[in-house]
Amino acid sequence: MTKKERYAYVIDWFEQHMPVAETELMYDNAYQLLVAVSLSAQCTDKRVNMTTPAIFAAYPDAESLSKATFDDLFPLIRSISYPNNKTKHLIGMAQMLMQDFNGEVPHTVNELVKLPGVGRKTANVITSVIDEQPNMAVDTHVFRVSARVGLTTNAKTPLQAEQQLIANFPKELIHKAHHWLILHGRYICVARRPKCEDCGITAACKFYKTDMRYVVEGLPKKK
């Protein structure tokens, strides 16, 4: 199977079985999404969704968050991974939003990465979710799944994977493909033992062909 055929197969399967693919983070506006995505680094969406309601109630917008003190905000974030840094970053982020962006969340990657605690991955998530810009956020799930399936080849960094994925997915599907790969990696193509028995794209998967089919089908692996 060529790479072009592999992409076509994967796209067709997801279009049929996951026509609606979106973030599992709970939010009502761009500000809330920015806060939630910033908190989600090295943390589960489930944990973030348990934490953000209290934050949004106390700090409903960038202006109120920009006036928060570390001691005020930290107790609301302490159950999240790296709470010290994230508390500082959120306050700094809100202050920059007020100073440089009139309290509004910018909608370009170049502007977003200027905010404290916002890297390229977070900026790509924000822009792809808010207005479906063709940006591909590569987290550990996307990086793992795309390499296993064969959507990327010898990508050593998230940026290399991002560039390959953007080059091969149709522009209008990139924002959706990001969620396809994340959700597939979160629930099916998990890190330790992928659930190939429940996977619908094994026919296009390099890793299944070279390694997992022998495990799933109980066959002796060819030497």
From TrEMBL:
Keyword Iron-sulfur on entry: yes
Domain HhH-GPD, first and last residues per copy: 39-187
Name of the protein described by the UniProt record: Endonuclease III
Cofactor comment: Binds 1 [4Fe-4S] cluster.
Binding site for [4Fe-4S] cluster: 189, 196, 199, 205
InterPro entries: DNA_glycosylase, Endonuclease-III-like_CS2, Endouclease-III_FeS-bd_BS, HhH-GPD_domain, HhH_base_excis_C, HhH_motif, Nth
Catalysed reaction, written as an equation: 2'-deoxyribonucleotide-(2'-deoxyribose 5'-phosphate)-2'-deoxyribonucleotide-DNA = a 3'-end 2'-deoxyribonucleotide-(2,3-dehydro-2,3-deoxyribose 5'-phosphate)-DNA + a 5'-end 5'-phospho-2'-deoxyribonucleoside-DNA + H(+)
EC number: 4.2.99.18
Entry keyword Transmembrane helix: no
GN (gene name): nth
Cofactor field: [4Fe-4S] cluster
UniProt function note: DNA repair enzyme that has both DNA N-glycosylase activity and AP-lyase activity. The DNA N-glycosylase activity releases various damaged pyrimidines from DNA by cleaving the N-glycosidic bond, leaving an AP (apurinic/apyrimidinic) site. The AP-lyase activity cleaves the phosphodiester bond 3' to the AP site by a beta-elimination, leaving a 3'-terminal unsaturated sugar and a product with a terminal 5'-phosphate.
HAMAP family: Nth (MF_00942)
Recorded family membership: Belongs to the Nth/MutY family.
Pfam families linked: HHH, HhH-GPD
Top enzyme category: lyase
PANTHER family: A/G-SPECIFIC ADENINE GLYCOSYLASE/ENDONUCLEASE III, ENDONUCLEASE III
